[in-house]
Specification:
Its main location: cytoplasm. It is an enzyme of class 6 (ligase). The chain is mainly alpha-helical. Among the domains are: about 120 residues, HUPs (Rossmann fold), CATH 3.40.50; about 90 residues, Glutamyl-tRNA Synthetase, domain 3 (Alpha-Beta Complex); about 100 residues, Arc Repressor Mutant, subunit A (Orthogonal Bundle), CATH 1.10.10.350. The chain contains 19 helices and twelve strands. Strands 1-2-3 form a three-stranded parallel beta sheet. It has a three-stranded antiparallel beta sheet with strand order 4-5-8. It has a two-stranded antiparallel sheet with strand order 6-7. Strand 2, helix 2 and strand 3 form a beta-alpha-beta unit. Helix 3 crosses helix 5 and helix 15 crosses helix 16. Bound molecules: glutamic acid. The site of glutamic acid has 8 residues, from strand 9.
């Protein structure tokens, strides 16, 4: 039997990191089993779907390494509407489902409770199809539904506790539970690996498989991803969109490595491991049952390590979208013609060790390309104290006299200027840094001044000095 797994996102919003994790788990499982990964877009909720979300899913998957053309699909659930209806009709004809026209109020009046599940009122009343009549599945009165779950063992659900649930609405349209089963069946899915939040659907879905006469798949319900307050990650509250992380400058390699560590760990005391190791070692049945904390700080640290591990040339390439403002990435503050690739290449190794996400490259290097630096006024006020004007005067004079404009000479010169005032280098550099780069933190100062060049450095120092009059 060829293993066939599927990832079945609904295109109702940005692509969630939890979804990306399920996609990767499916992807690896298929690979390990010599199986097939199917992508199905569950687009039947017409009110909430948008084509751009579908495109977002495809491109985000592509980004984390599930590339277009290397899987089966994408299929669109809406294209199978005929099959969904046919299955609903089969279930009705075989007596496994029946029509019901009860409203919520009818049910409440009968049971006296707002919370009571459906009471089976129409089970044997012989109501036929008609406008407004929903189709309900007749769940067995006895026995239990045992779900085989690679992560959870064999969760068992007593059938008498499962209400006769709706499989098609009053307008005849099949609901998610049924459409999802019919698609899995039509696509020959053998293993359903998905988020834990679907576990309550599973006994119902397994009953549908059985009623339609097909052996149910093996399931694997992966625990949810939570924030630091142990709340399920929510798109309203938390940063969950994979696209947002991509645009901020997370590397795909770091992201997918991190996502796979949510609830699982490779052998040894390692977390940052090559993808091939994860593909080898990952075991679905080793995934923890407890919810997994999505720790953005840790992801950031991870990303920094991935950035530092890049060969410089690759780092330079990886920065390009932020240096030019490609696609959904905001353009940098400089004009394209102001950018100088050689100057960037000269400081790139210095930046590479300092940034955790690629978007941070921009504030680190903008001083090199802008005609005048973007002055951070708070940094200015904090740094430019009594004596800064005179210090800048002396530094300008000393720098003007330099024969060689190199980091080493700049450093020893400024050190000497500071020493005359009894200042350590850190204190002496601060006003120079703010004058030249506009900020109090950034790349190593003297290398920066070397790359910026004599004229531009001195012009900025003189301009700052004038502001201090
Ligand atoms: N479309 C469903 C979701 O995004 C998929 C459910 C499933 O994987 O079975 O939650």
């Amino acid at each position: 039997m060829t293993v066939r797994v599927r990832f079945a996102p609904s295109p109702t919003g940005m692509f969630h990191v939890g979804g990306a994790r399920s996609a990767l788990q499916n992807w690896i499982y298929a690979k390990q089993q010599g199986g097939v990964f199917v992508l199905r877009i569950e687009d039947t909720d017409a009110a909430r779907n948008k084509p751009e979300w579908t495109e977002g899913i495809l491109s985000a998957l592509d980004w984390i390494g599930i590339s277009r053309g290397s899987y089966e699909g994408p299929y669109f659930q809406s294209a199978n509407a005929g099959e969904h209806r046919a299955a609903a009709a089969r279930l009705y004809e075989s007596g496994r489902a029946y029509y019901c026209d009860c409203t919520r109020e009818d049910l409440q009046a009968r049971t006296g409770s707002q919370y009571q599940g459906y009471d089976g009122y129409h089970r044997d009343r012989g109501l036929g199809p008609g406008p407004g009549n929903a189709l309900r599945f007749r769940t067995p009165d006895e026995g239990a539904t045992v779900v085989v779950d690679l992560i959870r063992g064999e969760p068992t659900f007593e059938n008498k506790l499962i209400e006769d649930f709706v499989i098609a609405r009053g307008d005849g349209s099949p609901v998610f539970l049924l459409a999802n089963v019919v698609d899995d069946m039509t696509m020959g899915i053998t293993h359903v690996i998905r988020a834990e939040e679907h576990l309550p659907n599973t006994p119902k879905q397994q009953l549908l498989w059985e009623a339609l006469g097909v052996k149910p798949p093996i399931w694997a319900h992966v625990p949810v991803v939570v924030n630091e307050k142990r709340q399920k990650l929510s798109k309203r509250r938390d940063k969950v969109a994979l696209e947002a992380y991509r645009d901020e400058g997370y590397l795909a390699g770091a992201m997918r490595n991190y996502l796979m560590l949510l609830g699982w760990a490779p052998s040894g005391d390692r977390e940052i491991v090559p993808w091939s190791v994860i593909e080898d070692e990952f075991r679905l049945d080793e995934v923890n049952l407890s919810s997994a904390f999505f720790d953005e700080k840790k992801l950031r640290a991870f990303n920094g390590e991935y950035i530092r591990a890049l060969p410089v040339a690759e780092f330079i390439d990886a920065c390009q979208p932020w240096l030019t403002g490609t696609g959904t990435i905001a353009p940098p503050p400089w004009q394209p013609e102001e950018f100088d690739a050689d100057a960037f290449a000269a400081v790139a190794p210095l930046a590479q060790t300092r940034i955790a996400v690629l978007s941070e490259i921009v504030p680190n290097v903008d001083f090199l390309f802008l005609a005048s630096p973007l002055i951070d006024e708070a940094a200015w006020t904090k740094t430019m104290k009594d004596g800064s004007a005179e210090l800048l005067d002396d530094a300008v004079a000393a720098f003007e006299a330099l024969e060689s404009w190199d980091a080493e000479s700049l450093k020893s010169t400024l050190e000497a200027v500071g020493a005359e005032r009894g200042l350590k280098l850190g204190k002496t550099q601060a006003p120079v840094r703010v004058a030249v780069t506009g900020r109090t933190v950034g790349l190593p100062l003297f290398e920066s001044l070397e790359v910026l060049g004599r004229e531009r450095t001195l012009t900025r120092m003189r301009a700052a000095r004038l502001r201090l009059v």
